[in-house]
Amino acid sequence: MDRILRKEEHVIPMEAIPKVMTRISLSPEDQAMCVERTESMYTTYWASAGEVSRFFLAVMQEKKIIGAQCPQCQMIICPPYMTRCPVCQKKDFSLVDLEVGVEMPQVGWMLATPPITVFANARFAKHSPFGRGRVMLGNSQSALPIQVFTTTGFLKPGIFRQGTQVKVVFRSQRLGFSTDYFAVPLSEVPENLRDKPGLEEGELSWRTLALAEPKRLERYVQHMPNVLTEIRKFLQEIPLSPRAQKNLTSWNRRILIKTGGGDLGLNLADQKIELVSATEIISSDLVLVVEDPRHLEEWTKGGSLINLMRQGVLATDKLQDMETIFKLDRIPRSIRRDKEEKIIKK
């Protein structure tokens, strides 16, 4: 793990390297090949994408979380963000070097209640909703920054609190990022897997939200024609909005929406959305259930589908495809911005 990498050799998979704002570089300390992030960063630290980091190499290759320990006072820190003990000194009064590579336990506890991220940026959109907190592992004097998820459905406040016991879980595909590992409540892990090192996400049972058929009510049925009219008007604006078209770039989905006033389908393809009958969605990529169809009309005017999910008003059969719902939420805002900038004529 300490060897110098050759120019043609990369530990991080090439598909994990962003095509912009990066370059292949040499680390200033040992001249090892690495990926350098070149976007503006207001920090006093030099940072690489992980190719020379023993911590990320251990995560990627061995499914281990490692820390660093002082050979004199036995202090442990995880992650190993320091190379020298801040207390102990050698005979020449220089600081004692920490020994990196101490394997940490993979069960710990939350240092504080983590905030929940629902509207994530592009890099983390496919992982949301998630919490972002710090976990204490073993005898570490520092906490490990980590994403937290629940296997029970949509992440809500109350699942994680200060002191909640958690299990570190590893992604099946690890690319040298902090998203290669995450934590779930230990109570959600089967007892026979709680002590297993290197537990992968595919070994857990991930439940989706229960989808019940919406109640068909006359008032919903009567309002359904108005809802469909508003949806059609809204969808006709997408081809006129560069931002909305950009939101849908390379995104193809067949969405079945069930409501108390009737079912409908949305076909996402070629940077546009087409309203179709539910019978045309033979094999859906995503199913949404909302009892009151007027919520869909509110969505066309800027209402949030994500907030409906948080309130328990809307359900989906695939929490793993939240990115599609983010895109649907973003489209009304994109159209509004293009109107404000007079890119779209009102």
Secondary structure topology:
Elements: E1 22-26, E2 33-37, H1 54-62, E3 66-69, E4 76-77, E5 84-89, E6 95-97, E7 99-103, E8 107-110, E9 116-117, E10 130-137, E11 144-148, E12 165-170, E13 181-185, H2 218-235, H3 242-247, E14 253-259, E15 262-269, E16 272-276, E17 286-290, H4 294-300, H5 305-310, E18 314-316, H6 322-340
Helix pairs in contact: 2-4
Between the first and last Cα atoms, what is the distance in angstroms?
A: 60 Å
What structural category do the secondary elements indicate?
Answer: alpha+beta
Across the major sheet, the strand order is 8-10-11-13-12
Overall pLDDT: 86
How many domains? 3
How many β-strands, per DSSP?
18
What is the count of DSSP helices, taking H or I runs of 4+ residues?
6
